[in-house]
Amino acid sequence: MSKTAFVFPGQGAQAVGMGKDAYEAFESSRAIFEQADEALGFKLSDIIFNGPEDELKQTANTQPALLTVSVALLQALEGRGLKADYVAGHSLGEYSALVAAGVLSFADAVRTVRARGQFMEQAVPGGQGAMAAVLGAERGVLAELCAKISEEGNTVELANVNCPGQIVVSGSAAGVQAVVERGKEEAGAKRVIPLEVSGPFHSSLMKPAAEKLSGVLTEVSMSDAAVPVVANVTAAPVTEAATIRNLLVEQVYSPVLWEDSIRYLAQQGVDTFVEIGSGTVLAGLIKKIDKNLRVISVNSITALETL
User: Fold this and answer.
1) Same structural domain for residues 237 and 186?
2) pLDDT tens figures, 146-170
3) Range(s) of the domain holding residue 151
């Protein structure tokens, strides 16, 4: 029997003006932007719609902005009666998935990801951490190279296992630079591309941020999930609120197992993935994981009407 998963994008999918058509077209979507502004105490919606881009790209703004746009589009989608059998989100997108599954209220989620972004920015001084996309390397071989470089004194780890041939590494600036220099020869990479990011996300260097986030999450009300959430950390379904809380803390310093998550969902009979939020990043990754899977990107009112 055909099953559907709602999936939600993470950092990197942002664009000035995203979600504005939903804000203008649907009262339910507009209410989400208004809730975000009220919960945060400043006009996040103005940054989302008008920029400037440099301000939107700041992690502490990007994270609540992407969450807000995803949930605003989700409201419009659910207004059409569409439901999911599973939900999942890429890194930050996991919070959108948790709102969709009824685990978190939107107001609590937007405040939490604002704090999460601030903690992640503060965890490592500017210039000391880095990330890079490694194309064409096998996961096991790349993991061995990262372990070797880390043993030499420069931390670098797998951060995002996105799809076959695309893995992001994260760690100290020197550790990531070593992967840039040695990735082709020692891990069989075709290219290693340094990324413009404000910190070494999803690496052990983020543990100070995770500790701070744990304190925030302790105060946040969570319910058991109405539909299974496939967690980044385990690539397995979870519904219990207490387990989800612990996994959100681990997620900050653990790799995002996106390829594994999509393969798990496909094994459960999910053949249709609805990407809800800005851009089409996840659609591209899912097609590289399994070209037979159907992916629909709901990133605008036009896309929603087509659906």
Assistant:
1) no
2) 999 999 999 999 999 999 999 999 9
3) 129-197
Candidates 90, 198, 202, 261; catalytic one:
202
Please state, for a pLDDT cut of 90, what percent of the chain lies above it: 93
91 is catalytic: yes
Same structural domain for residues 167 and 229? no
Residue in the structure block whose two tokens are 């604002």: 114
Structural domain total, the chain: 2
pLDDT beneath 50, residues of the chain: none
Q: To the nearest whole number, what is the mean pLDDT of the chain?
A: 96
Q: Listing from the earlier edge strand, what are the strands of the sheet with 191-194? A: 156-163, 166-172, 129-135, 191-194
Residue 34 neighbours by CB under 8 Å, 6+ apart: 45
Are 162 and 259 a contacting pair, CB within 8 Å?
A: yes
**Tokens 């543990």 found at:** 207
Q: Which of 29, 70, 91, 96 is catalytic?
A: 91
238 membership: H or E segment, kind and range? strand 237-238
**Whether residues 80 and 105 fall in one domain:** yes
Residues 89 and 222 in one domain: yes
Per the annotation, the verdict on 90 as an active-site residue is no
